[in-house]
Amino acid sequence: MKFDFTFQNPTKIYFGRKALENLKPELKNYGKKILLAYGGGSIKKNGIYDKVVDILKQSGKEIYECNNILPNPALSKMLEGAKIVKDNNIDLILAVGGGSVIDCAKGISVSAYAEGDVFKRYWINHEELNNNVVPVASILTMVGTGSEMNGGSVISDTVNKIKADRCFPPHVFPKFSILNPEYTFTVPKYQMVSGIFDIMSHLMEQYFSGDDDNTSDYLIEGIFKSLIHSTRIAIKDPTNYEARSNIMWCSTMALNGIVCLSKEEDWEVHYIEHQLSAYTDCAHGMGLCAISIPYYHYIYKYGIDKFVRFAKEVWNVDDKGKSKDQIALEGIDCLKKFAEECSMITNIKELGATPDLIPKIANTCNLGGGYKKLNRDEILEILKQSYQ
To answer: What is the CATH number of domain 12-183?
Structure first.
């Protein structure tokens, strides 16, 4: 392990078919006023809303609501929730939904008692968090972001076309998260596979960095192989509990801080996708998929040994008689073929990007990168390649 590290993850996970039974005893640890945060109404259709509300009422809680939190949660919705929290002295924010809802809940938590332009302070300038926060908990209904066990919050300023991320310290992490794989059974296939590529991208952003022998890389390879195997089963049988439970736990493990320990990291694909979706409002995982293939084609030579390892260990590419370039490119091709097999989007044109938008997206991306530090022109070229 190359770098020293300190690891802390305070989130308690309740996992399995009976996980919701733990909500009532957990609620005893918090005050009377609960803000229930959720999305566009799917939890009402599948019955989860009624179950949660019933438990809250049995527990004697006052329920306030912040609903219609959409994918790529908007700054305006976050500020609306923050006002509810402050005006009503909310004791716990309970997020019921996928990563967007949980991300927004964390944003509400840190913004309610903050002063000034909170988006600029915490998401753009990454200032130190210096105000009181409200506890957050989550009930997960769609996998992909890992937000149920981390401090990440991605918020979109829809007016100024800025989508920005912030990883808050451990006291902002959900205090507890309830993960029942059965709650993901009714997620439409498009959203399911979008979330799956989000998991893959989290793994790759951490994997494609460094040249040291790191335990974290072995863990990533194992999670990746489990994810590929279970995805193929879940696509054919969306109610296969074993497959959906594996996918759910792969998602949590991919971004709860374990597999990045003592690692250099990349995250350039995410930086580019954030601005793609700021302009197109595309599904996050699909945007990542469309950008990843041309991005890795562009940078693989700068970290060729890791790309060779990826091809061999994750995709079982036979290296006999092949050059490193051939093996590495075959691994990237396996990734693309898997995406196509799963009906993922591999072209930003299909996500609403137009030729006139591409320079705007490139010009507003954060500059970063792992094996290759990109400039604006290189990001522009990658976007053009992902448009073809």
So the answer is: 3.40.50.1970
